Amino acid sequence: MREQWEQKEQNAQYKERFVLAAERIREINQETAKPGASVAVHGKAFASYFHMASGFLSDIHAVYVQQAQNAFCNASLEELQNRNARLYQDVTGKNYETSFANPDFAKRQLGNAFAPLLCTLYTELRSNIAYAFEGRLFYLTTLFELFIEVYNIMEQQDASPEEVKSAIYYYFFDYADVTVMDSLRDSFDPGRDFAANIICRSDLNDLRYLYLFGEYITKTELETAHYLNSLTKQEIQDMASTLTEGFRRGFELYEIDLSKKHTVNIRYHLGFERMIREIIAQFSEMGLSPCICRSGVSIRQRNLRGKSGYSGASPNKQYEYDHRMDDALFFDKAYADRVLYIQRQGLEKLRSLCSDYAGPVLIETFGEVPFNPVEKDTALHYSEKQQKEKLAYQSARGLLNNEYIPGDQTSFSIISYPLPEIGRQFKEIFKATIRVNTLDQTRYQEIQTKIINALDKGETVTVTGRGDNHTRITVALTPLTDPEKETRFENCLADVNIPLGEVFTSPQLKGTNGVLHSPKVFLNGLEYHDLELTFQDGIITSYSCSNFEDAEQNKKYISENLLLHHNTLPLGEFAVGTNTAAYVMGKKYGISSRMPILITEKTGPHFAVGDTCFSHEEELITKNPDGKRMIAKENDFSRLRDTDREKAYFNCHTDITIPYDELGDILIHTASGEVIPLIKEGFFVLPGTELLNEALRDGSI
Length: 701
Known about the structure:
It is a single chain. The protein is built from 22 helices and 19 strands. By secondary structure, the protein is α+β, with helices and mostly antiparallel strands. The protein folds into three domains: 2-174, no CATH class; 187-315 and 347-370 and 401-414, no CATH class; 440-696, no CATH class. The strands form four sheets. An eight-stranded antiparallel β-sheet has the order 12-11-10-6-5-17-18-19. Strands 8-9-13-14-16 form a five-stranded antiparallel β-sheet, covered by helices on one side. The chain has a four-stranded parallel β-sheet with strand order 2-1-3-4. Strand 18 (675-680) and strand 19 form a beta hairpin. The mean pLDDT is 93.
């Protein structure tokens, strides 16, 4: 009710402006539709651009009006599908080749000077789809007005790119006081219940509900929802409890009082609403209310690490890739400082909501065909100065968030399920994934304790690849002072990180040397071929891949999407995966390359570049089931958290796995010179771990 009141209050302020802006946009559409129409001296292509964009905004206005009148509730499935297709048609399939959202096409039509500006503007205008469905009149009005302002500039014969860029810059700068605060409320205020209302109040057997979110809906989302509707009530309850109980156990593991928390953030892919509804019910019994916010739609919210929130299908991954750095158009230190200032004010204002926040739960999905992007020079990219400013901003923002929502006072839980895109065996793979997610914890606890005891005897661990994988790396381990009470590896069972099946540590940087290689790997939604990272004293010193013919283009690809514009990254985690059942599932169904890192990291040793697993949680006391305290929680960078916090964290963590069939040996080297084999030629050989080989040999899940 509070959210509805706030929305009405805000909408009342902008209603008259919105009506006037919508009328002017209709006029622009008519002006630019005339035969031979041109925008000042800039030519017919510019008239075509403004005609297309104004037509799209007129459609948005119609969606807002229909949504306000609840017209979609009475529309047929076919009507809703046609509306959804029309809103996204400009960036889907072959249409994208001749869309002004495509930076290549925009450059050909509009020229070097104006194309990046108008292409980016149109991309931002497309965020109005979400705002229309949510009835957010502030965003609709101000974006309509920005479009009109740019059109007015372009009508002048002496219009300059600088004027257009200035209009866009000040749109983001001036309205940051509203947009930043809104983003915070979306994340932490359960009163922002647009999605929760659809999930909890709709008839989920009537798949028309999927079109009420305003996301792009494909056969995948429809088939997912249909399949979940076919499961029994008990199956849905079990799927939900695997996640909610894992979340609760995470608080027990870290000895945090869950009873003091009142909200939980739920992130998922559309189609899983039946499961989400049950998750909401189970969390309600724990005293937790859901915060379910949409993944960011504005270019100011783009994240190179992927989406965070609920989302539908991607209308076009190349489109999203082309626009991943569109904020380069306006991002500078002044903008960053303003956002950080408003962020602090907002967090202070919402201090009680921050205190209530228990953390996120994520339902990841997999099965999509791996994406190999086309690199376009016409797409916006950060300058070297912007890269440094962006990293500094992200670091400051991470520290600020941790100040109000300390990492050692929240937890998380994450699980993954396949989408129908995985193939014709979708149902079998889904059932197999459930089995992988619910393996016997007692059995794995015992085996992983044996592995940890062996690893705790070592000073270093050597990992080698075999076949096409030429990994050869030595990892240095944190010294133990009291082996009877301390451990350097955490025993990972099915709590925060589902499925179970790994033991992990934060390695020592000094003494960690070698090459990490993967013939083919899927990271952060992108595919890499022959990825090779060289480490010296735990730091990446060189990197390469073979995605493109040009070596420099390959380096740029890694720099932007894996290093995330950092000059280098440290090795933040070393782990040994033990979930051989998950590995067999990938091989049995031929989906190894399409499984998410959440599962694949359990199917062999993995290495994470970036922060440690204990980022912002170094002081939190954690113990393994055998009572030993985990002491390997920091490295040379995170140790700076009390003296030079801006250099302590990188705000990224990307896992890279060597699957068992590419794995040679894992050998533990002790101070006395003894070598303890853990894995030889991809099979476990440490006494007490032989059961893990059963799945590898007989193919059972």
